[in-house]
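Researcher: Structure for this, please.
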Amino acid sequence: MRVKLTVFVIFLCLAVYAAAQTAEIYGPQQGGEISAPVTYDNTDSTLKLIRRPADQRDAVADVRPPAAQAPNARPAVQTAPDAPPQSDRAAVPPAQHLQSSPSDDKKSARPRDKVRWNKRLSGNFTVYSQPRTQGVPTPNLNLKFETVYQILRKNIQWLVAGRSDVYVYQAKADFLKYEPRARSWSGAMFVPDDNCIVMYDDTKDSKNLISQFTHELTHLFFEDFFNPPAGKAAYAEPPIWLNEGLAVNMEDISANYRGGVWANDLILYNIYPPSPAAAAQKQAPRLQTSSGRVFGSGSALGARDGGGYAGGPRLSDKRAVFKDFRQFIRQDSIDNASAGGWVDDWYFQAYAMVRFLFKPYNAQYPENRLQFEQLLKEFNASRRADSAAVEAALKKAYGYKDIADFETRFYRWLYAMQKVGREKILRENK
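Model: Predicted structure, token format:
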């Protein structure tokens, strides 16, 4: 009897140990929500938009495939190597247009191969972490990556691919030293040539780090959907406004499915369609409620002219002027935005357009997931991103007659959504 009991205890201990090791390697298999952010702050009786500190904005960089590989690639914008993005409100800078190494064996010449890496497997990632020489790393980073994976799987399941590689440098200095394509204002980037994500461990702001990772992982899945690493089809550059708009949407819901900074701005900003009358308007009046609280001070926003429109009560004197949709969907529109200094509004418009098509009311699950999935499949089938392809895909997926019909329905949704959101804020602040 004692022998049997001893054998049973030993077997039980081995089973517990094996389970613990499996949990450590594979991480969580169920999704989870990180604590939800507050969308507005009335602690001082004044509505204020939630803004990231200036040194934490524009921290995400995208590295696009070289023009030689993309028949319809956008022309590169000539900027200073470390010039900061021309944005005062966007959470991401313009995409980097960089040439790949001419070597056929790119991986053998990568500077990051000189770094000593600690390799660790989680359920869906192979994470290479640079050993720290000082400080403490962000705790449970692999588990945070797995949580992001589950969030994307919950929202864009048809895009989510298999195992992905992630390289995490210990500090920004190493990130810039060993990643020639990185810029001083970037914190993470998707590298198409290696089909991986590289970033550095921002121990001062783990939420921002996860937000950046979500943005870049969305790009990786999106690009793999159109151009699988092992695929034989000719390279196709997917519509840039869809690519960036979806990445910003996923970034915004990485902490709360109802959205964060971008969703907040979409309610409070006064958004104008492209027209001379809209561009000519100036300061918008502030709104004072019966309780005496004044809204629209804009103290936490960048320096923009005021503006307004008839889509509900104005709670802010800040505005954004969106471009004509037919011009905006062009593949070179982001380069025009960068050259013209309106990259902030470009990302905002891309976010808003994709939000309307995919998750218009930020419910727990995307309301238009089936239509949006069909839209991407139509683009993937045509391998084109011109206006004719956009109109054809929108007609099949959503029933829109043309781009003008899409634009009309968008503004109808936007102004109705803003009216409801602003009136709700007023009721909560009485």
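Researcher: Any notable elements?
Model: The chain has two domains: 48-236, 261-428. Residues 246 and 354 are 6 Å apart (CA to CA).
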